[in-house]
């Protein structure tokens, strides 16, 4: 599905082009809508076409949105996704590597099925790698050369929650991926950074306000922040000149139990 919503028809080339994975809901949707409102052309990637259409429909009139159904854990889907972006817009200035899953919540490590572990790794880590690799290939060859990749890490890239071994392990791995990509991208004008997000109000985090398991075994409600604040942070990182880079940013609900957690 490659439906384009744009009043002006063809991209003039003046607009920056972004690809947001996991754009059908939550943080991905908020970031996509923020970029569209700022005049970016945005490819919306996700597994559920109807959700991508909802994201496209929520953008302002005249925004250039390209919904593409893709499962980032499948190499063939990623190849087709980047081909669709290249065919429609001709280049890529930003990849927001956002697609991810918590996996089964609250499952002790000794009870976590291997299939669940593998699903989280395939989505959060392998999917991020496949998209970054495809972005690198395009950004190295396009003219003007270069671009930016922003990986969606997590507070869990620093401090885990109880019973989150698969999610936490992949988010720690994303930090290593970010550092390696940032180093390897220097000769090609490819800037790579990471945003670590804590308690943004989305469907995935809805339960935190009623009660989240703490390190001491208690369950306690936690504060959340507006997901629009995350979107504005990503936009700030995205709109820096390629000579500047936010290597790591942490944006979180001010009073959440992170500093001193546990």
UniProtKB/TrEMBL annotation:
It comes from the Bacteria. It holds the Pfam family adh_short. Gene3D superfamilies: NAD(P)-binding Rossmann-like Domain (3.40.50.720). Keywords: Oxidoreductase. The keyword Oxidoreductase applies. SUPFAM superfamilies: NAD(P)-binding Rossmann-fold domains. InterPro entries: KR_dom, NAD(P)-bd_dom_sf, Sc_DH/Rdtase_CS, SDR_fam. Residues 16-198 form the Ketoreductase domain. Belongs to the short-chain dehydrogenases/reductases (SDR) family. This is SDR family oxidoreductase. It comes from Streptomyces vinaceusdrappus.
């Amino acid at each position: 599905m490659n439906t384009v919503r744009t009043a002006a028809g063809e991209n003039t080339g003046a607009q920056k082009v972004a690809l947001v994975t996991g754009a059908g809901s939550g943080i991905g949707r908020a970031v996509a809508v923020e970029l569209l409102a700022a005049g970016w052309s945005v490819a919306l990637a996700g597994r559920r076409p109807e959700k991508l259409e909802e994201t496209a429909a929520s953008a302002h009139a005249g925004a250039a949105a390209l919904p593409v159904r893709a499962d980032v854990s499948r190499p063939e889907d990623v190849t087709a996704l980047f081909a669709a972006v290249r065919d429609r817009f001709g280049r890529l200035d930003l990849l927001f590597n956002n697609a991810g899953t918590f996996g089964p919540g609250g499952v002790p490590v000794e009870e976590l099925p291997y299939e669940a572990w593998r699903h989280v790794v395939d989505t959060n880590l392998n999917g991020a790698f496949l998209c970054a690799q495809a972005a690198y290939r395009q950004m190295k060859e396009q003219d003007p050369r270069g671009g930016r990749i922003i990986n969606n890490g997590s507070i869990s890239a620093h401090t885990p929650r109880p019973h989150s071994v698969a999610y936490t392990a992949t988010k720690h791995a994303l930090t290593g991926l970010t550092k390696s990509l940032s180093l390897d991208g220097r000769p090609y004008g490819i800037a790579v950074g990471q945003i670590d997000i804590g308690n943004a109000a989305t469907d995935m985090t809805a339960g935190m306000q009623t009660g989240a398991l703490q390190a001491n075994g208690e369950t306690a409600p936690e504060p959340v922040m507006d997901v629009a604040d995350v979107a504005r942070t990503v936009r700030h990182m995205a709109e820096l000149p390629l000579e500047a880079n936010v290597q790591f940013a942490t944006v979180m609900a001010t009073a959440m139990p992170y500093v001193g957690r546990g």
